[in-house]
Amino acid sequence: MQQAHHQLTVFSSQGRGLYEFTHELRDWVRSSDIQAGLLTVFVQHTSASLLIQENADPTVQADLERFFARLVPDGDPIFRHRQEGNDDMAAHARAALTQTHLAIPIVGGAPVLGTWQGVFLYEHRYDPQHRKVMIHLIGE
């Protein structure tokens, strides 16, 4: 049994939206020499999340954003936490409704994802942010 871990700090988001990093994950897994195991991906923030989502049609991402805008509107009067602006508590709620960690099987030295699946950081804040994602791989 082997383990490897790494912190991705490549995320300087341009604000709210989805940022794919599937290629970075694949490259790192390949470099680990672990052929079979489990990859854990964890975002170290409370106003961003992780998604496995379609990466072929960008209208999917736009539709997701419209859905979340309706579900969790910025500046909703029910929110009292607004220290960093109208999108502050909405960003926390969006992160609570999505995922802050993912588990992805590794087979043949690569993440097992479907044909149209990609791994995304979902930035929930309007302003650009620096995000860190920790990745951990255990296997043989």
From TrEMBL:
Membrane-crossing segments per the record: none
Gene3D superfamilies: YjbQ-like
InterPro entries associated with the record: UPF0047_YjbQ-like, YjbQ-like_sf
The organism's place on the tree of life at top rank: Bacteria
Family assignment from sequence similarity: Belongs to the UPF0047 family.
Name of the protein this chain belongs to: Secondary thiamine-phosphate synthase enzyme
Organism: Sulfuricella denitrificans (strain DSM 22764 / NBRC 105220 / skB26)
